[in-house]
Amino acid sequence: MCPPDFFVIEKEINKWMKKENQPDRYLSKKQWVRPVQIYTTLEADPWFIEPDPDCQDMCFTANTGWCRWGILLRANFKGAVAEARARELIRHEKWFKDRQKILGLEIVPWPSPSHGFGGQADVVTVGKNKESIILLMGYGQKNRTEYEAKDIIREVHGLLPDQVIPMRLVNDDFYDFDTTCLYVPPFDNSEEVLIYYPGAYDAAGRRVINSLPIDPRDIIAVTDEEAHNFVCNGVFIRDPNGRTNIIMNQPSERLMSILKERGFVVWVVDTSEFLKSGGSVRCLSLFLPDKNWL
User: Fold this and answer.
1) Residue ranges of domains in the chain, CATH in brackets
2) Biggest CA-to-CA distance, the chain
3) Residues 182/232, Cβ–Cβ less than 8 Å
């Protein structure tokens, strides 16, 4: 995670960002601290990188890479996104190299400079075991993750072709895949659930969701209003007591009720300042699970 000390909108690189609608720095910091407090309460292990005053979006660490099975695959920005955010990748690269032995991660640079990859923000993992896991990869938004990234992800992680499924994003309000889809795997004391926004995908993408090996009763479509409140950009964490906790931005009473009935502990946060740049909880957190996780 990266404190939002220099969070500002100087370059508009998605539909949410408006220079005349600048985030309040004090309120941004206050809202950013809340997920950190929740993570530590749940005994997660937050790490922090020092912010750079020349990096407007550095607090959105999810875009800098994607980590699974002990491998951190670095992101690659293109076009206007690179103009606004390329400096971040340099800072993050040094941070990871300095801590590589402590973290125990293999760091893999993005091998194809000509193809964009938005890191964790465009990959959602469905399933619990690597042998049967499915990676949903969003693509199609200008200067962001491209279709060809699916093959690189598959090769780096030794997955079968049908384990990485590209899904085209067709709604400009949702430029990264993790703003449209949240998956929580099943554990001993909780069910699995997939929360998604149908309006973000084309017909083929909606068919992919409906064809996943998930009980249809465990797939929850959110409303347009809920989606624009970035409820899908939440995160889940297992606490020491074995409970599955979901952290999300101001979910509706409808969604809260559904999740609580299923046994989830729901933590409500306010990320309204970060929504000015089109981000919420998951955008602010790059997760680094070790090689034994899922």
Assistant:
1) 23-50+174-277 (no CATH), 64-168 (3.75.10.10)
2) 48
3) yes
